[in-house]
Write a structure and sequence with these properties.
The mean pLDDT is about 95. With about 575 residues, the chain is an alpha+beta fold. The chain is built from 18 helices and 28 strands.
């Protein structure tokens, strides 16, 4: 039996158990989701986490009863009678387009549901599911509606799969970037500043600077031209681009200034188009590569905000490649290849690739969409890359390739996007002069390699469990003098390291050496150098390496040389 069907059926058993334990409950919906299921309820009294074991126990008792799932097709009028007193079901019945309603009967529980479901509960292993948590959820996801109680559960094909998943979750909790960010003093969120708006602390800002500096040098070598654009712009700009009409629910409200409305920048695209249109362009200039580390602002609902990985203000490594139609396939191939090379520099070698096709609402002609999708497919095949189709997953202005990197726990994260655009060239009347002196419309490819820097750094922290590679570590080295009379030598060593562009701190607090070493290990410092009489005499340092402990004594020059090799090679 397909696991999705088992998970959906378990949501009905969950609702059945809640119906028996909490009379008068009102039922909303209960779908299967990734790794499990949930059901939303309106209850007379709020539940607590302590109620979950009781509900789970009742579910297991029900599973043992070999309850059958019986499908029935009934009239909407009959369905309204059955679900009298269930306002959420009645609302769903009213919205049904067909004149009939499908219900499933499982023991003493009836639910409005299209299915499919298992034949009976004997198909479900009772030790392969677990209720995990409670959450609040607005009916239909709208803040205007009533807040319901959502019960989440996990479900797998076997007890072993469930236990393996739970173990991964324990490991994921240890790697939670929100906790690491606090412990390592990288960033903070403050209610007075606003939800989803991170403030970067000095060490976190250093990580950002390292990544930005790497991107600047790497992209400059690839002939990208760097731009800066304002953080706000006239609302008419985003109306013209189409972003306002398509995305206004996810954008901040306009600001009225001098009788005109301005918008916090949600995308960089219109500014880059304005740069292109600022003068007449020849085919000889194309392809043009405009890029920007542009900070944008989007209104994400509070319920989906999550540390750095889902925020309201974030910086994209955004770029637009403007080219002729005959250059498009070559440029896409180059972009995919370059994107994967950059991801590998940061330690990501495993990934899933998706080709997202035309959605229900779109701009441009069907012929344009077909050509664009074929170009993306051709590039992926040229590079011998496996990919999956994401049906209707494209944006309204063109199909795209998404590259989802896999972290150390095998979890996928969306980073690289390579996106066609049929919309902007048309709306902004972009053109170039071809070989015959005729005006032609260029093609645009949007691309982000790392995605948002906030999300990418959050993923990095979880991938490495906070122990970032040497070249990315905000503080690479601590120097620990054993006693007061060793502090001058510690200063000399630290100065030599700083002169070689290494990031170093002296820890000369009045604490024991062992306590400082423990603190350094907790702070994930790659190298801790201990200096005392012996090291002063031999002009050396005692070296402790992260994860290895004491690795012996080294001459200062030899240690510096090793560190420079690691920095240059960008290795751990």
């Amino acid at each position: 039996m397909e696991i999705k069907v088992i998970r959906h059926s378990l949501s009905h058993i969950l609702a059945y158990a809640v119906q028996e334990l909490y009379p008068g409950v009102k039922f909303a919906i209960g779908p299967a989701i990734e790794n499990g299921f949930y059901y939303d309820f309106e209850l007379k009294k709020p539940l607590t986490p302590q109620d979950l074991p009781k509900i789970e126990k009742r579910m297991k008792e029900l599973l043992k009863q070999n309850i059958e799932f019986k499908k029935k097709l009934i009239s909407k009028a009959e369905a309204k009678k059955i679900f009298k007193g269930q306002p959420y079901k009645l609302e769903l019945i009213k919205e049904l387009k067909a004149g009939k309603a499908t219900i499933y009967e499982s023991g003493g529980f009836l639910d409005l549901c299209a299915g499919p479901h298992i034949k009976s509960t004997k198909e479900v292993p009772s030790d392969a599911f677990k209720l995990t948590r409670l959450a609040g959820a607005y009916w239909k996801g709208s803040e205007k509606n009533k807040m319901l109680t959502r019960i989440y559960g996990l479900a797998f094909n076997s007890k072993k799969e469930l236990e393996e998943y739970l173990q991964r979750e324990i490991e994921a909790e240890k790697r939670d970037h929100r906790i690491l960010g606090q412990k390592l003093e990288l960033f903070l969120f403050d209610a007075d500043v606003g939800a989803g708006l991170p403030i970067w602390l000095p060490k976190g800002a250093t990580i950002r600077h390292i990544i930005e500096d790497y991107l600047y040098r790497e992209l400059s070598q690839q002939n990208y031209q760097w731009l800066y654009s304002p953080h706000i712009g006239n609302l008419e700009l985003w109306k013209k681009s189409g972003h306002w009409n398509f995305y206004k629910e996810n954008l901040y409200s306009p600001i009225k200034i001098d009788e005109q409305y301005y918008l916090l920048k949600p995308m960089n695209c219109p500014f880059h188009v304005k740069v292109y249109n600022s003068k007449i362009r020849s085919y000889r200039e194309l392809p043009l590569y405009f890029t920007e580390l542009g900070t944008v602002y989007r209104y994400e609902k509070s319920g989906v905000l999550h540390g750095l990985t889902r925020v309201r203000g974030f910086t994209q490594d955004d770029a637009h490649i403007i080219c002729t139609p005959d250059q498009i396939t070559q440029e896409i191939t180059k972009l995919i290849k370059h994107g994967l090379q950059i991801l590998k520099v940061f330690g990501f070698e495993n990934f899933d690739i998706y080709l997202a096709t035309r959605p229900e609402k779109y701009t441009g002609s069907l012929n344009d969409w077909q050509k664009a999708e074929n170009s993306l497919k051709y590039a992926l095949k040229e590079l011998n890359l496996k990919y999956s189709i994401d049906p209707a997953g494209g944006v309204f202005y063109g199909p795209k390739i998404d590259i989802k990197i896999k972290d150390a726990l095998g979890r996928p994260w969306q980073c690289t996007t390579i996106q066609f655009d049929f919309n902007l060239p048309e709306r902004f009347q972009m053109s170039y002069i071809d070989q015959k002196g005729v005006k032609k419309k260029p093609h645009i490819i949007h691309r982000a390699l790392l995605g948002s820097l906030e999300r990418f750094i959050g993923v990095l922290l979880e991938h490495y469990a906070g122990a970032l590679p040497f070249w990315l570590s905000p503080v690479q080295i601590w120097v620990l003098p054993i006693g007061k009379n060793h502090e001058a030598y510690a200063e000399t060593v630290a100065q030599e390291l700083k002169e070689k562009q290494l990031r170093v701190e002296i820890k000369d607090e009045n604490e024991t050496l062992s306590k400082k070493i423990r603190e350094g290990e907790m702070q994930k410092i790659p190298y801790i150098l201990v200096v005392g009489d012996k090291e002063i005499e031999s002009k050396s340092v005692g070296v402790r390496e992260r994860g290895k402990g004491n690795i012996g004594t080294m001459k200062v020059d030899d240690f510096i040389n090793d560190c420079q090799i690691k920095n240059k090679g960008r290795i751990n």
